[in-house]
């Protein structure tokens, strides 16, 4: 029995068949078309051409509702839950009718969620507000909801999960994978979308690799290796990406002393101390929401700490205005360049002086100096090889890689003593990533102190001279580059490993 | 103060308050749902105006107040539909759209009123009395002392207004109510559950228009038997405040509408009791209370996550 | 403690960033969609005119005559345009900074009040009183708008609703004053102040307030395009997050914009009472502050656009009033057409937006595919 989709022109002629009882991984880099393909199957995106077969029979392209009726469910990357409703209400929202065509009631939805939860080992408090659930619990709710939908349609036939592991701890991931394998054993075809090789190896029976919206190959997982998958995914040999590490001898540029941040009475950063020397890259690892982003906000003056001190080149900057920091000593590559670091609708000219617009070079007594600004923008465009029609071009019309170059160009131009880089290669392709990495290493070699906050372990391992790990707002470990590997970091990030603080 | 609080004064004041709250409830209760679904109807003032004029026109030509109320609802709903189309389908800014619809309503009603109800020269419309609603004493209940005079000797539209409150509570608790909340909070989630954000938003906006149209009908053929261009007098904007201060919940709307209506009624009744408070200062109260409510004095008013935000399906 | 950057920005919902983009689209929409909106509005009004039993051609010609047909009429148009220009500028600069203040009407009334108070009670030579009245008008408008900004900064009150509500408070306040403490021999108005008036220019109808509004156009143009505050306003208007990131003291900019914008609206009110009405009435404005929102949007939120849109809307209103006497169709036609212009303009903007998006998807010309994008 096969469920067959394709050819799909929107995805450029992709064929995909998924068997009952298997976990099928859909592997590809960002933008390879994985999510689009699955959104088509789930009915939220309409294809330009192609056919879909379920159980060997050709069926029309479904709407979302029809997809659900056929027992096809999807867990989206951004979970499709209403935070202000309870667990049971969220289920009721999408599961309207019972098997025999009666209206589902809130009580019944609640009862069946509990029932399914018990059967599959997915306990949920049905009266809890979704907003109060952890990411893992929310994901659990999505799976249970899919199961209930399947149960009502006589079985969940296809369950698609789009990058479900992004925000989970190692332990939660393992629990999820067990559930997926059990589902497959019960006769559901499970499709998991991911770009993480180790997850493919761990959970899937077969894997389809997509690249540039085309299918590269479908192979049984047992007959392949991570290296081969990596090559297929990026289209060339993955180079060992570790850069040469340095052993800095310079003075500490940044000292964070016992910084604590409370947000709405919740402690999000808990007594964190660290220091970064000149000529050193310190990586901060941790699953999303471990407090690393808040810490970076404190250091860059976007947020005030509740207690503790931040010393920059010997000066106490704990209460110093961000304006003062970024105009002089701190370069900041923010997490989300499209939201923070750039004004998308504004020209490159405008963006190249963002945050520097009070420099005497660019204004005098409140009047902007147009010519100096133009020259600055033109120079940086050239220096950072930005492909642009000119400095009047709006930043948002540049590609992601070029946008990041604008941002880097502006920030690195400051030649600041401290660089705080948060997810600097997020969403970039390999070439873009390499460019950013090289530039950061260049800065380190120049003598800048760099604090690198990233969710990407590969990036952290490749760039950092020293790694610190945060979990639940605390600093739980510190490793020199030589002793760090993904497994060890993963365990520390998940908070279950015996923590060796090597400082 | 004791000589002020006579029975006649209190009964009169409260009966007036009951009446004055009716159009506010009608306008705000739909608005509460619209806002919950993420759409604000700044044009509410316009819906009330077209509703009031539509009712007057309907009663004039059809000779029956009830049919007039029906045409009022249709007029209000049609105005809201136009606003909804611009806000929901064309995804234009909601506030600006609301103001545009309001300006448009003033122009359209003004010109239609003057054309239809003026003899010869178009400048001065004649006041024409039409069939209007009469008070209907609820048998039995209206003879309860005090309460009967306050609550059960009103025109039918007032009873209808209060009837919408329990109905709205039921609706909010139903699955459709869940969908409305999901639409405002997490439209993508609703779509992925097989619902339609656009459908829910249109339903909410058009229902708001229809209810506001009924509120407008009360203002023209409910409390009078004629029409003038200034009958709405800012009640649409007060109703926006009612919906927000009432936390977008029917019961909250009911309470807020009564409080605001009390302010409106006091300016009519205080002079009869010999208390001289400038009416303008009393009229300010609803607006000031709304601002204070938004300032979080009574706890923070939380907007839905997709408030004011148009929805677009993925391409 | 320093102000600004570290202080959490009031809860601007995710939607407020959408609004920023939507309104940016307003300023980007081309001249064509503006002209189209005006033409469509005039065409749509034709059936209404026919229903009134008049000849649309006659009616529109009467409107044209009534606005541009004589020096007298044209002076009236420019006097009204003066109000719309100042209001439109005040609104435009607010919206450009992402401060969605729809309180121009209230600021207009407060400005009129300020000017009236000064004109009635300030001793001294009339030129001095005049200047003082203009200044107090500006100040009153600025304070009224500053109150909205304060509520936003200190309590996180959404400026849309607070400014809308404050409009009514302002109108009622002047109602109270003109029926109470400031009442003249007739209820609903103050004493007249004929001797404190803006001097006439070009004959005796057009008052110097129009020149004042032209000066304001130049000043706002310079402010937005040439100054650091302008840079910060534009940054903040495009993205609140980016502004915070850039170390801009967001609250400071919002407050300054509110004061300047509100001041301009207040000045509009001062001009209207000192130049045209010479008395403060309880029915001082029929809602110019709202019409001016249409002016600001149709003018693309830019000073020159506002100038042109203001003259257009002034001509519509004055023309409609004069047409009422000559062609016999109610002057409400002007208001109808204004509403239609705005509705049609709003119709056309999302079109422009989706065109931009389509352009981005296809990529500019033969440019390479967008590399490194997540979605």
Blueprint of the fold:
The complex is a heterotrimer of chains A (503), B (315) and C (375).
Chain A: E1 2-6, E2 16-19, E3 23-27, H1 34-42, E4 51-54, E5 57-59, H2 64-69, E6 72-75, H3 87-94, H4 106-120, H5 135-152, E7 158-162, H6 170-185, E8 189-194, H7 197-203, E9 206-211, E10 214-220, H8 226-234, E11 252-263, E12 266-277, E13 280-285, H9 292-299, E14 307-312, E15 315-316, H10 322-328, E16 330-333, H11 337-341, H12 348-352, E17 363-364, E18 367-368, H13 370-383, H14 400-413, E19 418-422, H15 430-446, E20 449-453, H16 457-463, E21 466-471, E22 474-480, H17 486-494
Parallel strand pairs in A: 3-8, 3-9, 6-7, 7-8, 13-20, 13-21, 16-19, 19-20
Antiparallel strand pairs in A: 1-2, 1-4, 4-5, 9-10, 11-12, 11-14, 14-15, 17-18, 21-22
Chain B: H1 7-36, H2 44-62, H3 65-89, H4 94-116, E1 136-137, H5 147-151, E2 153-154, H6 156-173, H7 175-185, H8 187-192, H9 197-222, H10 235-245, H11 250-269, H12 279-294
Antiparallel strand pairs in B: 1-2
Chain C: H1 14-28, H2 31-44, H3 46-51, H4 56-68, H5 71-96, H6 104-121, H7 126-155, H8 159-179, H9 209-226, H10 228-238, H11 240-245, H12 250-277, H13 288-298, H14 303-327, H15 332-362
Helix pairs in contact in C: 1-15, 2-15, 4-5, 4-14, 5-9, 5-12, 5-13, 5-14, 6-7, 6-8, 6-12, 6-13, 7-8, 7-12, 9-10, 9-14, 10-12, 13-14, 13-15, 14-15
Q: What distinguishing features does this structure have?
A:
heterotrimer, A: 503 residues, alpha/beta, Rossmann fold, 3 domains, six-stranded mixed sheet, 23% strand, disordered C terminus, C: 375 residues, mainly alpha, ABC transporter involved in vitamin B12 uptake, BtuC, 15 helices
């Amino acid at each position: 029995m096969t469920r067959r989709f394709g050819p799909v022109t929107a995805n450029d002629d992709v064929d995909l068949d998924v068997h009952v009882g298997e976990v099928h991984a859909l592997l590809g880099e960002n933008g390879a078309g994985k999510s689009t393909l699955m959104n088509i199957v789930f009915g939220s995106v309409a294809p330009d051409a192609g056919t879909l077969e379920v159980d060997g029979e050709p069926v029309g392209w479904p709407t979302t509702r029809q997809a659900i009726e056929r027992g096809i469910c999807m867990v989206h990357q951004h979970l499709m839950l209403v935070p202000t409703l309870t667990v049971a209400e969220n289920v009721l929202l999408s599961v309207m009718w019972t098997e025999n065509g009666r209206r589902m009631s809130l009580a019944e939805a609640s009862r069946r969620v509990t029932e399914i939860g018990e059967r599959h080992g997915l306990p949920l408090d049905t009266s809890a507000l979704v907003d109060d659930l952890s990411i893992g619990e929310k994901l659990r709710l999505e799976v249970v909801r899919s199961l209930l939908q399947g149960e009502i349609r006589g079985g969940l036939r296809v369950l698609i999960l789009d990058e479900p592991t992004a925000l989970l701890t190692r332990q939660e991931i393992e629990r999820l994978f067990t559930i997926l394998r059990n589902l497959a054993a019960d006769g559901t075809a499970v499709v998991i979308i991911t770009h993480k090789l180790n997850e493919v190896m761990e959970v899937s029976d077969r894997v389809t690799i997509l690249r540039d919206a085309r299918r590269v190959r479908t192979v049984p997982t047992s007959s392949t290796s991570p290296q081969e998958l990596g090559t297929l995914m990026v289209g060339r040999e993955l180079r060992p990406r570790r850069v040469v590490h340095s052993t800095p001898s310079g003075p500490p540029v940044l000292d964070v002393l016992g910084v604590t941040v409370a947000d709405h009475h919740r402690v999000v950063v808990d007594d964190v101390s660290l220091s970064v020397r000149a000529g050193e890259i310190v990586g901060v690892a941790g699953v999303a929401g471990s407090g690393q982003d808040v810490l970076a906000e404190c250091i860059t003056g976007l947020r005030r700490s509740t207690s503790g001190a931040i010393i920059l080149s010997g000066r106490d900057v704990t209460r110093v205005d961000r304006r003062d920091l970024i105009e002089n000593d701190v370069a900041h590559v923010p997490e989300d360049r499209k939201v923070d670091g750039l004004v998308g609708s504004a020209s490159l000219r405008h963006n190249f002086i963002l945050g520097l617009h009070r420099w005497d070079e660019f204004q005098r007594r409140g009047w902007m100096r147009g010519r100096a600004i133009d020259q600055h923008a033109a120079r940086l465009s050239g220096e950072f090889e930005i492909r642009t029609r000119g400095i009047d071009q709006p930043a948002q019309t540049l590609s992601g890689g070029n946008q990041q170059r604008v941002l880097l160009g502006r920030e690195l131009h400051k030649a600041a003593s401290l660089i705080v880089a948060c997810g600097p290669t997020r969403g970039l392709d390999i070439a873009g990533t390499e460019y950013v990495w090289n530039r950061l290493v260049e800065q380190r070699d120049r003598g800048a102190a760099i604090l690198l906050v990233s969710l990407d372990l590969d990036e952290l391992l490749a760039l950092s001279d020293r790694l610190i790990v945060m979990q639940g707002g605390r600093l739980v470990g510190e490793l020199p580059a030589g002793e760090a590997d993904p497994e060890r970091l993963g365990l520390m990030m998940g908070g279950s490993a015996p923590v060796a603080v090597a400082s | 103060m004791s000589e002020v609080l006579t029975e006649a004064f209190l009964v009169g004041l409260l009966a007036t308050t009951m009446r004055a709250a009716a159009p506010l409830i009608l306008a705000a209760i739909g608005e509460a749902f619209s806002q919950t679904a993420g759409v604000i109807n700044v044009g509410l003032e316009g819906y009330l105006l077209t509703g009031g004029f539509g009712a007057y026109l309907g009663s004039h030509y059809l000779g029956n107040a009830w049919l007039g109320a029906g045409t009022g609802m249709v007029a209000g709903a049609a105005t809201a539909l136009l606003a909804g189309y611009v806000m929901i389908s064309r995804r234009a800014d909601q506030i600006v759209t609301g103001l545009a619809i309001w300006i448009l309503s003033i122009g359209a009603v003004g010109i239609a009123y003057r054309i239809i109800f003026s003899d010869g020269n178009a400048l001065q419309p004649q006041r024409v009395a039409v069939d209007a609603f009469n008070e209907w004493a609820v048998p039995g209940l209206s003879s309860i002392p005090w309460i009967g005079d306050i609550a059960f000797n009103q025109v039918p539209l007032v009873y209808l207004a209060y009837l919408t409150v329990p109905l709205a509570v039921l609706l909010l608790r139903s699955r459709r109510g869940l969908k409305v909340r999901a639409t405002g909070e997490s439209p993508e989630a609703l779509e992925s559950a097989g619902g339609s954000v656009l459908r829910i938003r249109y339903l909410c906006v058009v229902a708001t228009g229809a209810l506001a149209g009924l509120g407008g009908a009360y203002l023209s053929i409910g409390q009078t038997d004629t029409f003038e261009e200034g009958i709405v007098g800012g009640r649409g904007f007060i109703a926006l405040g009612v919906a927000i201060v009432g936390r977008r919940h029917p019961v909250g709307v009911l309470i807020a509408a009564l409080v605001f209506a009390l302010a409106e009624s006091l300016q009519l009744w205080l002079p009869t009791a010999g208390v001289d408070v400038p009416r303008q200062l009393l009229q300010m109260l609803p607006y000031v209370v709304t601002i204070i409510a938004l300032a979080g004095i009574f706890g923070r008013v939380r907007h839905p996550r997709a408030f004011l935000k148009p929805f677009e399906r993925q391409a | 403690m320093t102000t600004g950057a570290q202080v959490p920005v009031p809860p601007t919902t995710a939607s407020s960033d959408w609004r920023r983009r939507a309104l940016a689209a307003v300023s980007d929409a081309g001249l064509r969609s503006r002209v189209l909106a005006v033409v469509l509005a005039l065409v749509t009004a034709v059936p209404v005119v026919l229903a009134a039993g008049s000849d649309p051609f006659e009616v529109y010609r009467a409107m044209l005559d009534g606005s541009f047909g004589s020096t007298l009429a044209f002076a009236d148009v420019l006097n009204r345009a003066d109000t719309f220009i100042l209001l439109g500028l005040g609104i435009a600069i607010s919206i450009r900074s992402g401060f969605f203040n729809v309180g121009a009407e209230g600021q207009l009334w407060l400005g009129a009040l300020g000017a009236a108070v000064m004109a009635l009670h300030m001793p001294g030579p009339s030129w001095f009183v005049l200047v003082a009245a203009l200044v107090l008008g500006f100040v009153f408008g600025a304070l009224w708008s500053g109150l909205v900004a304060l509520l936003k900064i200190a309590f996180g009150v959404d400026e849309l609703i607070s400014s809308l509500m404050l409009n009514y408070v302002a109108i009622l306040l002047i109602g109270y004053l003109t029926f109470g403490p400031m009442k003249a021999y007739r209820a609903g108005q103050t004493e007249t102040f004929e001797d404190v008036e803006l001097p006439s220019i070009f004959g005796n109808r057009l008052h110097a307030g129009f020149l004042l509004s032209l000066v304001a156009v130049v000043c706002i143009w310079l402010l937005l395009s040439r100054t650091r505050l302008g840079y910060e306003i534009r940054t903040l208007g495009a993205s609140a997050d980016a502004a915070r990131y850039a170390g801009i003291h967001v609250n400071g900019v919002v407050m300054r914009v509110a004061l300047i914008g509100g001041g301009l609206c207040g000045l509009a009110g001062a001009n209207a009472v000192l130049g045209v009405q010479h008395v403060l009435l309880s029915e001082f404005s029929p809602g110019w502050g709202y019409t001016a929102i249409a002016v600001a949007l149709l003018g693309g939120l830019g000073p020159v656009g506002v100038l042109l849109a203001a003259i257009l809307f002034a001509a519509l209103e004055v023309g409609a009033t004069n047409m009422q006497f000559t062609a016999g169709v109610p002057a409400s036609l002007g208001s109808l057409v204004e509403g239609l212009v705005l509705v049609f303009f709003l119709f056309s903007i999302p079109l422009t937006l989706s065109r931009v998006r389509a352009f981005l998807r296809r990529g500019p010309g033969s440019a390479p595919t967008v590399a490194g994008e997540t979605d």
